[in-house]
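For the sake of transparency, this paper describes our internal protein records without simplification. Such a record has a labelled line for the sequence and another for the backbone structure tokens. Nothing more is needed to write down the fold, since each code stands for a local backbone conformation. For reference, a complete record is included directly beneath this paragraph.
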Amino acid sequence: MLDEALSSAFEKLAKIRREQVLLQLVLRKLGAEGIRLSPAQVLRLKRWVSGNLKAPAPRFRHKGLNQKFEIDITSREQRRIFAHLKRSLADDSGRLTLKAITSNARPFLRLMRAQWEAEIDEFERPMIPFLKRLRRVWKKPLALLRLQLHLARSVAAQINDELRASPSRRKGPLIEVQTRLHARLCQIGAEVLHLLEFGFSEAAMSRWRSQHEVHVVLRFIQMNGPGLAKRYLAHEVVETWRGAEEYMKHCGRLGYAPMEAAELAQLKQEFAQAVSVYGRPFAENYGWAAAVLFPKRATLSTIEDAAGLAHLRPDYRRASHSTHSNPKGLTQQLGMMPGTDYLPTGPSNYGLAIPGQNTALTLAQGTAMLVATAQTADRALMVEVMKVIADAAAEAFERAQMGIELREKKLRGQISGSAI
């Protein structure tokens, strides 16, 4: 629709530009001979240049000339004209297209919305059988992950209420960090579960990546005690100041109001005070861990090594491909079956195993660390139950994924029916 209108408008514009250039050329030639045409004669020229260039050039009589003076355009001049037109029309095309797009955007949106309201049910209808198939295939592992999440929340709620009710422990930095980080583990676990239930395995893997980071920090702080927990909480002023610096750098471009000078001064003072207390490395990312890791530089990787979770680095790196738009993430996605090559734009029935397995395990390990701060026989039993669930979920997720692969191979004729 818009392409046709643009094509027609561009043809008209090209004709106008051609006539203007040719007319100016002829008038310059006549002027060089001292000839000035009357308005009527200029009109005749316009009619000629608007026609076929192969037609004979017009002839004019002019006072002061004893003989007829004929104006013609050579082939070389025609080539120069067309080269000039090509350059100028390229610029005109961009301006014309932009004007057409901006002026038609709102009317086109109104048309699309009217059509979409009539077609939305048709668009969503295929999702119903897709979700039924997904939940039938992945029913058992998803149920185990849902149970794991429920147990993690239940145990944490008991411990959180108990610790915060104790006057001697509720204000301790370690308790504050442990309970808040475990709550974050559970929240991300819920996000993973819901993404898997709708077939978004790559997004679920990205969320497990965040859960792993929380798990690493939780374990590292618990290993090193209240002093490190206090540094961790104090590091908030560093992140707040860095965020304020970035905000002030870009707020104008974003159309946001700048921060008040007094507020900025207060944030900078708090930042400087924290660095003076904890040392210059405290101002860096993960600076809260710098003193414990010295002489190594504090990074997520070095914290992960110290926490004993480096064996999960391959899965973390795998999740990073899509999170950071690495080229690897374009060709290797969890929802793409081996041997296939397409451009996924939505959910997939395949690839739920790794994020599901990892999330069940992280919830079990993170809850075990929290239970260690306020252990009872019942809670110790619950930790063992969660370990069993993590193992069962890992097996169930793997079996479901292998079942899909086997059925796909059968459809492709790569194995016999007796192997299913």
Q: What stands out?
A: The two ends are 52 Å apart (CA to CA). DSSP finds 16 helices and two strands in the chain. The first helix runs from residue 2 to 32.
